[in-house]
């Protein structure tokens, strides 16, 4: 990075060199600071998993949750993953963070299970995690230690992760699938990939990216895209989750198109584990009451 920036600075002419150099120092400093803070965060348990409910569109009941990492950074408040996951990927910390996320999600499922609650949790993966030759064993070990069935865990991959090392990924995903772990494609429709991978990989679910959902009720093209994804998935025996549902109108259209599941602020934002549990139990109580009456 230093070299490219230096080169850029030089290419702009001598006079600008000092300016860019200075700018570079500051950027580098901030980066190093953030990296150090990330190392520190991992050691001092500053990360927390939030859980966003995934709701069955037909029943309106929570039938899963996506684990989303948060960083409770001292003096900075809650930091969202968009601002540190990319850096963690670049500086190689994502392996350790990814391990922590998986461990934490499994521990949480174990805890819920002990209270009689069976919620499938989906975990986001980074490309680097799939490059670890022991990834599959690691997942199996984690599930076993917490006494979980593999189909309680769902792993979310983006199209770009899938396309990165196709052959390697194919065999890895086949192993995970054979174990019974569920696999989904996150942000579906936004990546540069060919549809042939839908046939190649043993997938369970497509998650329609929120950019298609946002204007589904006003933009005819977005509506067509959502409907097409849903009907294609149906024919390929895949489940579909719509992301980023904020309005009742969006949900009504998705339901009409036959979408199975949704996530979004309309139902709930991502919540601390205890709040998700409370929401789930409240739903169960209400459902039980309806049944009694
Ligand atoms: P994602 O996996 O596509 O997660 C969906 C994002 O949309 C989340 O942002 C969620 O809070 C947000 N969202 C949910 N419902 C709505 C809605 O109705 N409207 C809007 N506008 N947004 C909504 P978040 O939590 O900031 O996460 C951003 C991204 O960071 C995730 O996108 C995922 O790619 C990544 N990420 C999060 N946790 C992890 C993790 O543990 N590991 C890895 N590798 N990546 C993670
Ligand atoms: Mg996701
Ligand atoms: Mg499968
Ligand atoms: Mg997404």
UniProtKB/TrEMBL annotation:
All residue ranges annotated as the EAL domain in the record: 31-284
Keyword Cell inner membrane appears in the UniProt entry: no
Keywords: c-di-GMP
Any one GO molecular function term: cyclic-guanylate-specific phosphodiesterase activity
BP GO annotations: cellular response to nitric oxide
Coiled coil (UniProt feature): none
Keyword Ribonucleoprotein attached: no
Designated name of the protein: cyclic-guanylate-specific phosphodiesterase
Organism expressing this protein natively: Marinobacterium stanieri
